[in-house]
UniProtKB/TrEMBL annotation:
Name assigned to this protein: Methionine aminopeptidase
Family annotation (PANTHER family): METHIONINE AMINOPEPTIDASE
The keyword Ribonucleoprotein is annotated on this UniProt entry: no
Gene that specifies this protein: map
GO molecular function: initiator methionyl aminopeptidase activity
Positions annotated to bind a divalent metal cation 1: 110, 121, 248
Organism: Kaistia terrae
Gene3D superfamilies referenced in this protein's UniProt entry, alphabetically: Creatinase/methionine aminopeptidase superfamily
Cofactor: record remark: Binds 2 divalent metal cations per subunit. Has a high-affinity and a low affinity metal-binding site. The true nature of the physiological cofactor is under debate. The enzyme is active with cobalt, zinc, manganese or divalent iron ions. Most likely, methionine aminopeptidases function as mononuclear Fe(2+)-metalloproteases under physiological conditions, and the catalytically relevant metal-binding site has been assigned to the histidine-containing high-affinity site.
Function: Removes the N-terminal methionine from nascent proteins. The N-terminal methionine is often cleaved when the second residue in the primary sequence is small and uncharged (Met-Ala-, Cys, Gly, Pro, Ser, Thr, or Val). Requires deformylation of the N(alpha)-formylated initiator methionine before it can be hydrolyzed.
HAMAP family: MetAP_1
Length: 277
């Protein structure tokens, strides 16, 4: 049985209840979300052939520090980096290292900042140099999948409506939806209730109510949906080594729909992005 609770009355840990936040929390989440989005905007000038993902990681850490924020992943369950960089067939949780990006790569960069105790969580795809049309199309389908999922967010709808909007579109485009990872509640807790599946049936799942805050972050594959986690315990890859892509926004349910906290300050949506802004 799902229960909802006034966020101000709940402990700062995942209790299995769904928190309902008020206007002050929405404002704080927008500040945190906008910081993550501004960092992702800045990376449009950084992500290019020859750049090691460690340089991306360093940029994220320094950007957060300059704005009084900490990267949520640094030290989380033993993770040693400030971001995740997932390249080509890496579904999520790719670990930055000293290997340079190559011309034709696609890469997801996932940034979460803790600002004044609130978690701003977002990820975005980047095209590295001259990218093949099949990879560009996958990125476009993934972005549209995210936005269709967001369009389903309003009071009275369910998490199943979100998943159905994503799955029905992605599969119609001859792509598959990863089942092993999902979106999640977020606020003053990094990973909170409820889970947001990126597949499902209309009317099923948890009812959406005004005040809920969560991420939607579909991972879409060109091949089959199956994934495996490598020996490092973090890096998830497609089992068939097909290309994969992901976008993520953090949203809050309003009385009439939803507010996206992590929209790009520069107006960037789907790559390629302008540089030098």
């Amino acid at each position: 049985m799902v229960t909802y609770v006034d966020a101000d009355a709940a402990p700062v840990k995942n209790t299995g209840q769904i928190r309902l936040y008020g206007p002050e929390a929405f404002a704080a989440m927008k500040r945190a979300g906008q910081l993550a989005a501004a960092c992702l905007d800045g990376l449009a000038d950084i992500v290019k052939p020859g750049v090691p993902t460690d340089e991306i990681d360093r940029y994220v850490y320094e950007f957060g520090a300059a704005h009084g924020a900490l990267p949520a992943t640094l030290g989380y369950r033993g993770y040693t980096k400030s971001t995740c960089t997932s390249i080509n067939h890496v579904v999520c949780h790719g670990i930055p290292d000293d290997k340079p990006l190559k011309d034709g790569d696609i890469v997801n960069v996932d940034v979460t900042f803790i600002l004044d105790g609130w978690y701003g969580d977002s990820s975005r795809m980047y095209l590295v140099g001259d990218v093949k049309r099949a990879a560009v199309r996958l990125v476009e389908v993934t972005y549209e999948s995210l936005m269709r999922g967001i369009a389903a967010v309003k009071p009275g709808n369910t998490t199943g409506d979100i998943g159905y909007a994503i799955q029905s579109y992605a599969e119609a485009e001859r792509c598959s939806v990863v089942r092993d990872f999902c979106g999640h509640g977020v606020g003053k807790v990094f990973h909170d209730t409820p889970n947001i599946l990126h597949y499902g049936n209309p009317g099923e799942g948890v009812e959406l109510r005004a005040g809920m805050i969560f991420t939607i972050e579909p991972m879409i594959n060109l091949g089959r949906p199956h994934v495996k986690v490598l020996r490092d315990g973090w890096t998830a890859v497609t089992r068939d080594r097909s290309l994969t892509a992901q976008f993520e926004h953090t949203v809050g349910v309003t009385d009439t729909g939803c507010e996206i906290f992590t929209l790009s300050p520069r107006g960037y949506t789907c790559p390629p992005y302008p540089t030098g802004a």
